[in-house]
Amino acid sequence: MKRATAFAPASIGNIAVGFDILGHSLAGPGDKVTVTLTNTGEVRIVSIKGSVTDLPKTAAENTAGRALLHLKKSFEPSVGFDVEIEKGIALGSGMGGSAASAVAAVVAANSLVDAPVGLEGLYQSAMDGEAAASGSAHGDNVGPMLLGGIVIAPTRGAAVRVPTPHWLHVALVHPHFVLETKRARAALAGAYELHDFVVQSEGLALVLAGLYANDESLMRRGFRDVLVEPRRASLIPGFAQVKEAALDHGAIGASIAGAGPSVFGWFDTAPQAEKASLAMAAAFKAAGLESDRLVSVVNGPAAKVIG
Question: pTM for this structure?
Fold first, then answer.
């Protein structure tokens, strides 16, 4: 019997300027998935435990299971996988909870076969798996979980890692409030002004240029979301005050993490991010929500086999 356990870290999708195409991983929480290689030709979800347990056990409806069904197409028909999931990321938190199980599953399974697929194959399979939860295939959480750090996540081809300054830190505050991804995506329906797309594209270009040039001033100029944040802000109690707290403490920029409700900001140093996280948590508390804080390097880890 071949058996492996993989860990996939939490992540932040969108990074304000890159809706569905830009994300970065986080050091700290994550999901663990144990996969056992079988000769049944089937993908079976054996157990789900941890922070979330009421997830589908039908493989096609579970992000880890669906990712493995996609990955299995690259192997012999008799190859099967039994899956045990340990959730360490809350769903509906904006920290990539649905993607992490998919990523950990494909990384674990790929380590067990005689002819493993490359990173592009893992990326496409995990992206297909996450669609089971979000309703669409996008890689801004999957990509950084697989590669670590900041990643450009295209729909076709492989994800692309972006140079990430070692000094760059993130403060993320997760309120005790669930915002389902599908509800957050529904808020984006409707018409958009062409001018807003131009402004958003300018911001994305400036942030990427700042990362490649290790230039904080360029990142600061570009770090804004005029397309998505305005439509989702009302879904998060106290969002404006939490964002203001981050900016008041010197954030390069601040916005909604993924689909929310977590809010994050980028900072020059870890102590600065720590102080800001306290102020952000206080702002959530003023809005009636307790919260959890996380401070991490932006150049976070990649998924890996741990046993």
Answer: 0.94
